[in-house]
Amino acid sequence: MPLVAYNDLPSFERLRAEGEEILTPERASRQDIREMHIGLLNMMPDAALEATERQFFRLVGACNQITQFHVHPFTIEGLPRSPQAQMHIDRYYESFDTIKNDGLDALIISGANVTHPKLDEEAFWQPLSEVFDWAKQNVPSALCSCLATHALIQYCYGIERTPLPAKRWGVFPHKVLDRTHPLVAEINTRFDVPHSRFNEIFQADMEAHGLKILVAGKEAGVHLATSPDGFRIVFFQGHPEYDDISLLKEYKREVLRFYHAERDDYPPFPENYFNAVCRQLLEEYKEQVIAAKNTKNIPAEFPEALLLEHIDNTWRDTAKAVFNNWLGKIYQITDQDRRVPFMTGIDPENPLGL
């Protein structure tokens, strides 16, 4: 929770200049400890649907332990679903109509798989656009992950993503570029982030349209940026929500795709993810898979259990800190009625007063 500047101690102003949340006594007196309602638009494919729920729920749940968080998962039309996944959605998810009627204090939008060269050709483009339009008028801040970032930047600013020569896949180092922004207050200035994507929106294109770049890396490019106002839309190109085993599961799926002739080449290792022990185990397994494929036999079981103890998570603490900053700022500016985006006196064009 934020500090209250109950007198004119110079340290309060110094901390405020560094991006810390420092409340005046007047503003503090108007705030109540209350619940927050967070929407999760989950567009991930069936295999990752429930894992994505858990990943984002963990990040929200690890935030301020005083506030009570209600997370409302929902999805949209235009995403192919198996009968089993649709049953899960029908039973546990809310409709977008319900979300609109009840309101939200914040919105998270996940990534998605695509089947067309251009995002606006996807069947989910129009339903997703409707969510964007509603959120812009009714939600203090929306946080987008990976594909959702590319879609919303194209929708709002006309910047189309650029295909990469090869998949950007692995765990990459990043650096905080704007240390005074409240979203990155009190986080490590250098940290890792997982990426898994075939496309990128480049820093120069973002900056040309006024987006604020907060975190980037030499190899992976921009990870964290915001809309020009500094807060209404938060963009992630990486996947800070990933579990430590998420890339392992993805690598395993790619190996099976190779075995079933769904891809021609054996998948490369995700960069900066497997240590020497893992690489040795997986090189041995590669030989077994290729031999099994050539002889039309069933390959040995993927050595997941042997790999788990060697997988490190070098991004989770920073991800938690960013989410905590994000939700903490929303708590400071959103109205007590979640159908109203801002409390009295907050400028929607500059909600943080940056």
Features:
354 residues, alpha/beta, 9-stranded mixed β-sheet, two-stranded parallel ribbon, globular
Describe the protein's architecture and organization:
This protein is of the alpha/beta class and 354 residues long. Helices cover 38% and strands 19% of the residues. It is built from twelve helices and eleven strands. It has helices spanning 10-17, 25-29, 46-61, 83-92, 96-102, 125-138, 147-157, 203-208, 246-259, 276-294, 304-308, 316-333, and strands spanning 3-4, 22-23, 35-41, 68-74, 106-109, 142-145, 162-176, 190-200, 212-217, 221-226, 233-236. The chain has a nine-stranded mixed sheet, sandwiched between helices. The longest helix is centred in the C-terminal third of the chain and has 19 residues, at 276-294.
Tally the beta strands. 11
What structural category arises from helix and sheet content? alpha/beta
Distance linking N and C termini: 20 Å
Estimated share of beta-strand residues: 15-25%
* Element string (H = helix, E = strand): EHEHEHEHHEHEHEEHEEEHHHH
Provide a count of the helices: 12
Q: Which residues sit in consecutive blocks of at least 5 with pLDDT less than 50?
A: none
Mean pLDDT: 93
Helix content: 25-40%
Give the strand order of the largest sheet, numbering strands 1, 2, ... along the chain. Answer: 4-3-5-6-11-10-9-7-8
Shape: globular
- Give the biggest beta sheet: 9 strands, mixed
Radius of gyration: 22 Å
Summarize the structure.
By secondary structure, the protein is α/β, with parallel strands linked by helices. 38% of the residues lie in helices and 19% in strands.
